[in-house]
Amino acid sequence: MREVQGTTIRSRAPLRISFGGGGTDVPPYPEEQGGAVLSTTIGKYAYCTLMARQDDSINVRSLDYDIVARYNVNTDLKYDGKLDLVKAAIRAMKLTSGFDLFLHTDAPPGSGLGTSSALVVAIVGAFKQLLKLPLTSYDIAELAYYIERQEAGIKGGRQDQYAATFGGFNFIEFLGKTTIVNPLRINWDTISELEYRLMLCYTGGTRLSAGILDDQVTSYIQKKEAVVQALQETKALAYSMKNAMLLGHLREFGDLMHQAWDCKKRLSTKITDPRIDELYELARENGAIGGKLLGAGGGGYLLFLCEFDRWHIVAEKLEAAGGKIVGFTFDLRGMQSWEVGGD
């Protein structure tokens, strides 16, 4: 590490909501068939504060897991389920001097908002700023993907790292081993209307996505017709949703969200449960045009597009049933990092 003792760097990477196409970014489907995801980032973040030290000590404090851990930069870090993502990032960056890391996020891990990937992107962004590394946005996203999926061995797709790095409304295509981010020029009226009519509802539980993804991947490899067809339909719906959003056809967009949710549930029996189904149907009965569970499934956040004059009714019904409505705005900037001046 170059001489940067005393420097404090802060970074943040936005969490994301995926409208359609999720699952088609999970290998080996994109390598064989090509995948596509429509998503945007929101004004909720994973944060990293990085302080260079003058010794070989590494001190990590994670508010999300209520963990304080100490390592040595010359020690071979072992993966044991405790801060493995942080260890993977440290190993991948090949650091030679000590530092302090302070980490926290605006949503719990396992909530379906791409929290873990955003945290890795924020860590990479902080080290990029500290070490003045000549990394492009594609480089950052690919490095974050490598850290999370290959170095740490955490299963999942490719969309989250790119969404957190680039930010904004994107149609992301996965073509073999190549990922292409297509930023969408959404009309500001449409963006404002989406912000007004979309609703995030926390179901009250988080989930581990690995088992759900294992189901999907195994079924796809075995070429089970129902899952293969569901993935193909999911991809086609992502293209249709992109077009509807670009044209500002929000009722059609809501209908497509509903179709995509029905399609997603066919990928694994673990994606939904009676509690999630109950909340989803309650919202639909009271003014939600369409919606979906974010992330791989099993828990976390439901996303709905509501009739403008029924939003408050949907919110009341969901909260009465135990859901928690969470306000949000869109983030259009993606990962940011900066040097902190004197306090």
How would you describe the overall organization of this protein?
This protein has 343 residues and is of the alpha+beta class. It folds into two domains: 8-185, Ribosomal Protein S5, domain 2 (2-Layer Sandwich); 188-330, GHMP kinase, C-terminal domain (Alpha-Beta Plaits, 2-Layer Sandwich). It contains eleven helices and 13 strands. The chain has helices at 29-32, 84-93, 115-131, 137-151, 159-166, 188-197, 210-221, 225-247, 250-264, 274-285, 311-320, and strands at 8-20, 35-52, 57-62, 67-72, 99-105, 170-175, 178-183, 198-202, 288-293, 301-306, 324-326, 330-331, 336-339. Strands 1, 2, 3, 4, 5, 6, 7, 12 and 13 form a nine-stranded mixed beta sheet that branches. A hairpin with a 2-residue loop joins β6 (170-175) and β7 (178-183). α8 runs antiparallel to α9 (250-264). The mean pLDDT is 93.
Helix-strand pattern:
EHEEEHEHHHEEHEHHHHEEHEEE
Instruction: Please state the overall shape, judged from the principal axes of the Cα atoms.
Output: globular
Low-pLDDT residue intervals, each spanning 5 or more residues: none
The level of helicity is 25-40%
| CATH architecture descriptor of the largest domain | 2-Layer Sandwich
Q: What's the N-to-C terminus distance?
A: 24 Å
Give the domain tally. 2
Total number of beta strands: 13
Number of helices, counting only DSSP H or I runs of 4 residues or more: 11
Q: Quote the average pLDDT.
A: 93
CATH class term of the largest domain? Alpha Beta
Please state the CA-atom Rg, rounded to the nearest Å.
20 Å
**What percent of residues are in strands?**
25-35%
Indicate the structural class.
alpha+beta
Q: Could you say what the CATH topology of the largest domain is called?
A: Ribosomal Protein S5, domain 2
Characterize the largest beta sheet: strand count, sense, and whether it forms a barrel: 9 strands, mixed
